[in-house]
Amino acid sequence: MLQYQTIPVTPFQQNCSLVWDDQTRQAAIIDPGGDLDVLLGAVKQLGLQLEQIWITHGHVDHAAGTADLAEQLQLPIIGPHPGDQFWIEGLTQAAAMYGFPPARAFKPTRWLDDGDTVTLGSHTLQVRHCPGHTPGHVVFYSPEIQRAFVGDVLFAGSIGRTDFPQGNHEDLINSITQRLWPMGNDTVFIPGHGPESTFGRERQSNPYVRGT
């Protein structure tokens, strides 16, 4: 069975998630935006073998720790979609602008596209390309445990911002309605910030996408 633990990091309280196989303890880390000492402490405490880094999108609070972590542990970087390359290339500047510790750009070991999959031990998660917040944003979905790691596409009661470079509100709404809703109302999503919710709850109560 897949397990996960979400750990807020950086001054932006970005939800970094550890995902692992509870039998083999093989693990991936989603969006290591910073506070690597905290994240690695959790990895050790849980007895995990960290094997991969998965990135939903290239914003600094989600990706700033990626290059250092990959180098330190010799880990492959999986994702995001190539549309976010310009965000990744701008990580050093973004870190300075927002008062983050120094950050470096990186080159993903593997870019992702809609319909791809990622594998952790015997478990497979689906990849959906969900542009709008950023052009290259991806989501990781596990039908097995009915969980979706959606980054900044959707939040409990809100949606991702689209006023950043190459953001697009129409694309974001289409991503939510065409890529997320088909995962099912009972699917729990882990957003990039704030508490978990379900797609069904957001379809009923989220003012930005209610009734879609």
UniProtKB/TrEMBL annotation:
This is MBL fold metallo-hydrolase. It comes from Limnohabitans lacus. Pfam families: Lactamase_B. Keywords: Hydrolase, Metal-binding, Zinc. The keyword Manganese does not apply. Residues 13-193 form the Metallo-beta-lactamase domain. Its cofactor is Zn(2+).
